[in-house]
TrEMBL record, chain A:
One GO-annotated biological process of the protein: regulation of translation
Name this protein carries in UniProt: Regulator of SigK
Gene Ontology CC annotations of this record: plasma membrane
Transmembrane segments: 89-111
Keyword entries, A-Z: Cell membrane, Membrane, Transmembrane, Transmembrane helix
Highest classification ranks of the organism: Bacteria, Pseudomonadati, Pseudomonadota, Gammaproteobacteria, Oceanospirillales
Bilayer topology: Single-pass membrane protein
InterPro entries reported for this sequence: Anti-sigma-K/W_factor, Anti_sigma_zinc_sf, RskA_C
UniProt-annotated location(s): Cell membrane; Membrane
Keyword Nucleotidyltransferase among UniProt keywords: no
Molecular function terms from GO: sigma factor antagonist activity
From TrEMBL, chain B:
Organism from which the protein derives: Modicisalibacter muralis
PANTHER family according to UniProt: RNA POLYMERASE ECF-TYPE SIGMA FACTO (PTHR43133), RNA POLYMERASE SIGMA FACTOR SIGZ (PTHR43133:SF62)
Protein name: RNA polymerase sigma-70 factor, ECF subfamily
Keyword field: Sigma factor, Transcription, Transcription regulation
Organism lineage: Bacteria, Pseudomonadati, Pseudomonadota, Gammaproteobacteria, Oceanospirillales
Domain RNA polymerase sigma factor 70 region 4 type: residue ranges: 124-176
Domain RNA polymerase sigma-70 region as annotated: residue spans: 27-95
GO MF annotation list: DNA binding; sigma factor activity
Amino acid sequence: MHEPWDLSDPGEREQAAGEYVLGTLDITQRAAFEALLAVSPELQRQVDDWREHLQPFNDQLTPVTPPPGLWPRIARAVGLGPRPWLQRLGLWQVLTAGFAVVALSFGVLWYQVPQGAVVPQGAVVPGDSVFVVLDEQQVPGWIISATQDGEMMVQAVQPSAMPAGMGGELWFIADGDPVSLGMLPARGHARMQVPEALRASLRTADLAVTIEPEKSAPHAAPSGAVIDHGKLIPMRNGTVSF
Amino acid sequence: MQDSSQEQLMGHLTACASGEGVAFERLYHATSAHLYAQLLRIVREESAAQDCLQQVYLRVWQTADRYDASRAKPMTWLSTITRNIGIDWLRRQKRHPEDGDDAFATLANDVDLAAASDLEQQSQALHECLAILSASQRQALEKAYFEGLTHAELATTLTQPLGTIKSWIRRGLERLKACMSHGI
């Protein structure tokens, strides 16, 4: 599912940001990276920096003037030129804003991709979903992504500091009873399987992470403090990039 | 692009955000030749590049109010939108090659010549930070950047092992970053 990369390492994160802007990450790496990017201002800054670092590739190209007929086409399309009252009203922008509001009210803009991201249609595998575990300070600890057939991939980012011998345990709560999916990795990544009987409720179940002793895992029930809880968010085509 | 012209572009973008058509036209005349060159390099077909360029400026007009000068220089922001639209077009072509047969048939004639003359001119005015990359690093980065190729696709296109490609990209990015950040 994923290349073994370690997003808990700052150097690797920075490199991943460069490869993300360059566009060489595969579909699943890109989805995981974007999930983290959405909650990490540090990573957003790095992505911005990489766009500037790579800009010389554009600057080196010899400018080519487009054919003269193109500007009138564009001006007409945005309502400029022949009917100046449209321009004063900024009608196009009003319509666009109106459309955005309608789209929002139908829940179309449910997944906000950071400004300027390269998001080709179909970049995210339909059926994949993701949950980013945040601690109290909103620092991302892990990215959990799941495929429709119940395979989960967990990537450690910056897990909260924990007492020796303790770690984060992932719980799947479908009908009120938490079922342990195992301990989350302190570094690197791990695969986890959702038991077959629970897969049908993958989309609706709650996920929770609690602090538990590593040795006796998996436990029958959670006993430690809760780090975060939430649901997997489906990712699909039709993401909005601006 | 000079800092003074970047400042002018910033002014145009702010005015576009408040719906000023004159500023939009100025922005178009100041930047369209750069963005068109970028699209020609990505989609490698004139009429597709023109359609994409139209989409670029529609999006710029619609989203100028979201331009944030603390996050990107104006030209970088415009180039990012341009690259997204160009690479989206490329990926659609890959998925539905039957729609693009004509385009690709004319491509070979049109573009190889254009590309050859481009390369000649490029080598005259190569950015110093691109000049410090090894030939293989630059080729891998440039192909990825303009052709939307993943590590695995680059390995196939350049007939090199995946590990070699990854290391060219990794080292190339490191050098580029060091040069762009500290001039080394």
